[in-house]
Amino acid sequence: MDRRTYLATGVAAALAGCSELGGPGEPETNEERTDGADGPTENASDEPSDGADDEDYPDLVGTFDDFENLEEWWEWQDIGTLEADSTRSSGGSQSALLTSSPEDRGQVRVRRELEEPIDVREVAPGLDLATDTDAGVVRIQLQDENAHYVEYSQRFMGNMPLTRHNFGITRIRGEPDLSEVIVLQVIRWFGDDAEGRQWVDDFHFVPRPTGGKVMVQFHGGYESHYREALELVEEYDVPATAFVPTGRVREDDAVDGDRLTREQVDELAAADWTIGAQPANGQLLDQVDSDALEDAIGEPIDWLAEAGYDDGARFFAYPGSRYTEESYELVRDNYELGFAGRSRSQGYAGNPHLCSTTETPGPGEATDLLDWTVEWGGITTIPFYRLDDPETLEALEETLSGIDQRRSADELEVITPAEMAENYVYE
């Protein structure tokens, strides 16, 4: 079966149950989670993707709470409501539905107090998420007995089925004792006086990498990546990835535009950059017509393979971290990793098709971002876009110089998408 036939067949199968769905916010009926796992989520993490035995991972890894019994959860300070929803689940009989109304100040918080403390020093939490808003941010707080906590968060797209998401550490309060976590808290903020619904299921843990890992990426295929970044990347000897909208690559300098030429892409590859994929036309995927999505997502694979960049054809970056159910399914069917979201210090990828990236740092911010990754570990992926102003170039050099210094001190490791796919995915 050729790629196009496979694409069409895969999408048709993935969306076969969608024709009877209602409008935005209407719950599906006993849908399956859209992260590629088969069967109940309790079995989703039985086999680590790098071939290691389960005994090599902390005992907490896997499903911790499947929300089949909501009696252990309660609404914090009566903000929002918590109820079971049997029409959505990640493999069990129900999920937890968190609802906010204007009188709830636009938020909902639910908590579970554990009978015995748990040690989370070697793991990171995650959730399966769905919402009826356009997009959202969910936070997970792991608290000790003194209410000091580590907070994980993730930004995600709305109007999707329940989908597994990777979370990263974004806030610390006090000096939490991560070996004695006694409270789990899930928070969704909808905005001042806003209302909305948030579904959560399969509260799980994934392994957390030992030490801090970073990736440096350049998104959009801009000529400034060649003109401004190549020399700096070579100077600091930092592995880099360029995600290229292949339909916008210029044949040569005679073609007007601000995108890379074919020769410049070849030079980046010759300098050991990974050349990955973005939609051929470079558009945000939630703005691409449904009948054009297959080509937008699939054609870069052919272009990269024909150009000799088969390794990079395994990896995809969502422009603007935006996607729809159909485009996400196409990426999942055709790539090993996809990059989206807004989080740092992510654990292993429980969903490899929504690996986290951070926001592009400004001057002074890269140092803090790298120090955070050194202190708290996990995987921090730093993206850059246009490099056409002095502040962005300053931040890029600060990032590369800071990585070099911390790498030399054995505080950070720089990894590539291929290394992440091989070593830091746990499904």
TrEMBL record:
Gene3D superfamilies: Glycoside hydrolase/deacetylase. Residues 211-332 form the NodB homology domain. Residues 17-62, 84-112 are annotated as: Disordered. The keyword Ubl conjugation does not apply. GO terms for biological process: carbohydrate metabolic process. It comes from the Archaea. Keywords: Signal. InterPro entries: Glyco_hydro/deAcase_b/a-brl (IPR011330), NODB_dom (IPR002509), Polysacch_Deacetylase (IPR051398). It is found in: Secreted. This is Polysaccharide deacetylase.
